[in-house]
Amino acid sequence: MTATDLDLPEPVVAAEGIVAAYGGRPVLHGVTLRVAAGEVVAILGANGSGKSTLTRSVLGLLQPRRGEIRLFGTPLRRFRDWHRIGYVPQRLDAGGGVPATVREVVASGRLARRGFLGRNRPADREAVSAALADVGLTDRAGDPVRTLSGGQQQRVLIARALAGEPDLLVLDEPTAGVDAASQEAFAATLHRFVGRGGTVLLVAHELGPLAPLISRAVVVHHGEIVHSGPVPEPAGHHAAPDHDHVHPHAPYDRPGIWDAP
Ligand SMILES: Nc1ncnc2c1ncn2[C@@H]1O[C@H](COP(=O)(O)OP(=O)(O)OP(=O)(O)O)[C@@H](O)[C@H]1O
């Protein structure tokens, strides 16, 4: 623990010494990650470096072999305030074959607030409308989700997370495969969320318009954190405008993914 860590109040996320493996294959080798209230932390790294595994461990979706996780100061095994967390998983088809409307999918983000048999109160309807407006989908509220484009469906998932009025948003590659306009819209949404006092943990390959919002970048490489600080500059040809991915074989500390700041 460093002097800086000692200065921090109780972090929103505290993952200490996380060791995770699939079968016999280790994926995280004792990772420690703390996210303070109000931070916007980006987890960066090559494909397969362990970013999603770390995120899913933090949310209790995956049981690590070793280590301790606390959310809002409470050990994960005792944590019940899931309404305080909004999670947007890695891109998926939000609609599938289901005829649910945009509003219905977004409203499902209120369930943790309402309780299983809770009534749909005006506050719920207001939160859903506010979330739809936040992502610019008010005029599509009554449309079946499957009629929306991939980028718009991603916005539906983000609105669903926002509808729960969380204190922490966890997003796994929220802008992957999303067009530039939608990325800009998402950056604006995130900016408003952070302005309201929210905390963000997001996994990303490319930050694009999100870069100015990031207060700290954490680079995962082969299951270890190799950098925690300012967003590193993409290096060499990886900085080229047409280069939109990082290479799994390019080590962090040699010419390749990121230059150390
Ligand atoms: N359910 C699983 N079963 C077995 N192996 C898995 C599983 N999920 C991930 N892995 C493996 O664990 C390693 C880390 O995967 P993870 O998804 O955490 O990486 P990532 O950094 O999020 O990658 P990407 O950028 O491609 O999403 C990879 O080698 C991956 O193949």
From TrEMBL:
SMART domains: AAA
DNA-binding keyword on record: no
Gene3D superfamilies: P-loop containing nucleotide triphosphate hydrolases
Annotated ranges, domain ABC transporter: 13-247
Keyword annotations from UniProtKB, A to Z: ATP-binding, Nucleotide-binding, Transport
Nucleotide-binding as UniProt keyword: yes
Region entry Disordered, spans: 228-261
Gene Ontology molecular function terms on file: ATP binding
Pfam families: ABC_tran
Bias (Basic and acidic residues) ranges: 235-252
Family membership: Belongs to the ABC transporter superfamily.
Annotated protein name in UniProt: Metal ABC transporter ATP-binding protein
Record organism: Planosporangium thailandense
